[in-house]
Amino acid sequence: MKKRVYINSVGSVSAQKTFENDAFLTEITTHNDTTMSVINPNYKDYIPPAAARRMAKGIKMSTVSSKTALEEAGLDNVDAIIVGTGLGCIGDSEKFISAIIDNKEQFLTPTRFIQSSHNTVSGQIALGIGCKGYNYTYVNGATSFESCLIDAMIQLQLEEAQNVLVGGVDELVAHHVDTHRLIDHIKKTPVESTQLLASKTEGCVMAEGAQFFVLSNEKQASTYGELLAVGTYNSLEKAQLTGTVSKFLAENQLSVDAIDLVILGYNGDVTFDSYYDLLANELFSNTAQAYSKHLSGEYDTASSFAFWLASKVMRTNSLPEVVHLNKVAVPTPKTILLYNQYRGEYHSLVLLRQC
Prior knowledge:
Blueprint: E1 5-13, E2 32-33, H1 49-52, H2 57-73, E3 80-84, H3 90-102, H4 111-114, H5 120-129, E4 134-138, H6 144-157, E5 163-170, H7 174-182, E6 191-192, E7 209-216, E8 225-235, H8 238-251, E9 261-264, H9 274-283, E10 288-291, H10 293-296, H11 303-316, E11 335-342, E12 345-353
Parallel strand pairs: 3-4, 3-5, 9-10, 9-11
Antiparallel strand pairs: 1-7, 1-8, 2-6, 5-7, 8-12, 11-12
Helix pairs in contact: 2-5, 8-9
């Protein structure tokens, strides 16, 4: 019999004050822009200042969120570290390439190049805690984080590992933002985050963040909930969406009525939010609905923030009004479904259960 997979701890650095696990969206930061940066914790509390100066922002965010998750789980080390990222440490990549141009390919220091690879985050975390186990980074666009969850589930269910640190991280840099503006993937005018869905314009609000979780095949006092299943789909036509979701639930012996809360990945892009409308207005019209990207913004691993949100909902047995999308009450959020996609591609479904 396969082992069950538990979410034993969480850690988050986002555009909200989420790096302290004691609070759950009690203090909301409103943004009014076309991009969102994270609220930086005091990095000196987590990283020696000399080391922090050499770290890319993505590494610093990940160090804080991973340490928070490890401490909550009561662990000094894990059996495996699995990280998902869309762009890795793109800031250092940008600086290294700029240095090549500025210095005419001469007298270059290797530091920026070394830290610019996608697996730098997982490597730095492993070095920090002395983990010599399985270390892997997934770069699968907007399903990078979900790919990590699938890998971790397989290892835990087959008892190849007992505790796995899983995370999603992406950082915001000027060149990336400018590029996405040119192709109209970012909104042209600022939008107040509380009015994101009312903007009715094309493009999203680009952001950054890092969320980490300790997944285990052993339940403990800090357990938030259970990870039941993950499904990823490279592309889906709108006509296929409701059938795909229903099939996913049926494969896990669940009906639509068994879902207590569905968290949808609305990002304010009027063109592609219609995917979420199909589920909100049809399949889950009588189900409590929530969304999160008005708080976190959009980035390749923004679904990890939704995973953080769902974990906190299960732990606290409550749904903050700021993320509640419709008027259906959630007395007990026992079974939660997450659905995300980016510009009609990279669809994912994640099923969680309270325990």
